[in-house]
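Reply to dn_fold:

You asked what the input looked like. This is it:
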Amino acid sequence: MPKAKKGRQTVPVHPICHRAIHANFTNAALARIGGDRAALLESAALAKFLAWVADKPPDFHAPTRTARS
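and this is what came back:
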C-alpha cells in the first residue's frame, strides 16, 4: 500500500518490478488492492511483464513504459 494512502508496511521489490507496478496502477488502485498479490497478477499488462522478466538475471534493468490503465 502506498505511503500516501497510510501504508507503512514495506515489501522488498526489485526496482524494475516496482516501476512496472506503478506504470500499471495508480496509488489509489494500489491502496484498494492492499497486499493482495493475486489481485496484482490479474492485470494482463503486469502478467505479460512478469512473464517477460522471469528469465532475466537479478541485476537486469530496463526502461519501463508509463501507461496506466
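The helical segments are 15-24, 27-33, 37-41, 44-53.
Hope that clears it up.
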